[in-house]
Amino acid sequence: MEYFPAPLEKLVEQFARLPGIGGKSAQRLAFHVLGLPEEEAAEFANAILDAKRSVTCCPVCQNFTAGGLCPICASPKRDSSTICVVTDPRDVAAIERSREYSGHYHVLHGVISPMNHVGPDDLSIKPLVERVAKGGIQEVIMATNPDTEGETTAMYIARLLKPFDVRVTRLAYGIPVGGHLEFADNATLTRALAGRQDI
After folding, report:
1. Which helix (H) or strand (E) covers residue 169, if one does?
2. Residue-wise pLDDT tens digits, 90-147
3. What pLDDT was estimated at residue 102?
């Protein structure tokens, strides 16, 4: 038995398809949208359509842009000799928030995952290799997640870049700031010990 009119049910279903949104959250969002004045609802719908139509991938780094080069690739202030390889555009935003990195990026749009039928050809690995092959790159930082797929992807790309005499590094992993040793798993402790630094 349907509790809501068909158009409202359809709206709830669409919100429920979003990642991290369950049934109750989808209902709350749908009711919120229904409560908006018509102009605001139209702005919301148009913002979705406009983003879908106008957001593309940067021809250099594959990050999201509104056409042409992304702001990072277009900036003359960035260090063009370093490329940080990330899984998706959200990772660019996370690293940029730290304000510690001033180089360029390359967005893979996924990781190698045989279980999910994602292979190297499904990712933007070829454009990365072409960028490095042109020369001028001194270091490629692999910033994929520290899980099985992220590690596999990092190792695969490192092997591809080996012939180009470029330094390939991996983000350090270990105990998070504010964390406690007693709660760290064995793999994290092993990484933390291996990546220790002088003080």
Report:
1. strand 167-170
2. 999 999 998 889 999 999 999 999 999 999 999 999 999 999 999 899 999 999 988 8
3. 93
Left (φ > 0), alpha (ψ -120 to 50) or beta: where does 179 sit? beta
Report d(CA 134, CA 29) in Å as an integer: 48
- The dihedrals phi and psi of 77, each to the nearest 5 degrees, come to -85, -10
Query: Does pTM top 0.85 for this prediction?
Result: no
pLDDT of residue 85: 95
Q: In 3D, which of 21, 22, 45 has the Cα closest to residue 34?
A: 45
For residue 97, give the DSSP letter: H
Question: Do 195 and 172 meet the contact criterion of CB atoms below 8 Å apart?
Answer: yes
Extract long-range pairs of 64-73: CB within 8 Å, 24+ residues apart.
Answer: 64/89, 72/104, 72/105, 73/104
Instruction: Enumerate domains of the chain plus CATH numbers.
Output: 1-37 (1.10.8.420), 78-170 (3.40.1360.10)
Residues whose CB falls within 8 Å of the CB of residue 107, separated by 6 or more in sequence, listed in order: 57, 61, 62, 63, 86, 87, 88, 89, 91, 92, 124
Residues 6+ apart with CB under 8 A from 16: 22, 23, 26
Best CA proximity match to 93, nearest among 64, 128, 73, 122: 64
> pLDDT band at 1, cuts 50/70/90?
very low
| Residue carrying the six token digits 């995952």 | 113
